[in-house]
Amino acid sequence: MRISTQMIFEQNVRGITQSQQKWLNYGEQLSTGKRVNRPSDDPVAASQAIVVSQAQAQNSQYATARIFATQKASLEESVLSQVTSSIQTAQEKIVYASNGTLSDDDRASLATQLQGVRDQLLNLANSTDGNGRYIFAGYKTDSQPFVDSGTSVNYVGGTEDITQKVDSARTMVIGHTGTEVFDSITSNAEAEPDGSASETNLFTMLDTAIAALNTPQEDLDQTGRDALQAVVDKTSRGLKNSLNNVLKVRSELGTQLNELDNLDSLGDDRSLQQSQQMSNLVDADWNSVISSYVMQQTALQASYKAFSDMQGMSLFQLNS
């Protein structure tokens, strides 16, 4: 088989081109720090990197969701802390109101103080976050959840708690409805002595007590006075039940805040593992790449020299 000069020339050019392309690829890895810059560099690693990248994006989304959930739950817990203090203040007033030696003026003064506590609780029940959204309105965050009709306080908010998916297998309540906080009692609540239904509405408890304290007792017989005292006693039991209910909700929030901290730690560990996995798939091995780059550069220079020397060779030069 005869090998033409043209074939030899093309083979040498092809070899130089391939060597130059390898050298340029190593240079690209050095400049980007990536071993895989396009799918063709390593199809298997590139496809696995896509899966890892999607997992990283999902993990980042859950981290953002946990930030929102923590802010939401922390704000509600802060408001409920004030609600707890207000209920305890009301309890103190009710206990004092049970003193049989109080005059009608004293009782009226206590009623005024209870009215202030009641108004404060109503304001807390209609609390908003920094964006003007009502905290205890469920998913109806754009409308005031509690409305004072003058004779009663009615809840007109949403009926479903606000939930947030904070991890792949965890969805938690980050916003309770007003009904759960201000119109509920626990399963182990103190029952009424006569077997009647316990009052659940915090505002109704206070309104009935305020009305009883504002009623003059001087012109009442013992039966009438006992009836008013029974209202005060029922309110005392109701406030105790209501306080326990609020503390239960706060306990749930505290547990969830601790869980969010733990999920954040797990998310950070997961992020670190995913970053390491991604690095193993696509990042360049600096020692290997630098070594290969220098060796390929040397080989390319040798190829250039050999090709240049070959071009100067001919039969006439050999015979001269």
TrEMBL record:
Q: Which GO terms describe its cellular component?
A: bacterial-type flagellum hook; extracellular region
Superkingdom of the organism of origin: Bacteria
GO biological process entries: bacterial-type flagellum-dependent cell motility
Keywords assigned by UniProt, alphabetized? Bacterial flagellum, Cell projection, Cilium, Flagellum, Secreted
**Flagellin N-terminal domain location:** 3-141
Please report a single Pfam family linked to this protein.
Flagellin_N
What is this protein's record name?
A: Flagellar hook-associated protein 3
**What is the species of this protein?**
Mangrovibacter phragmitis
Upper taxonomic classification of the species?
Bacteria, Pseudomonadati, Pseudomonadota, Gammaproteobacteria, Enterobacterales
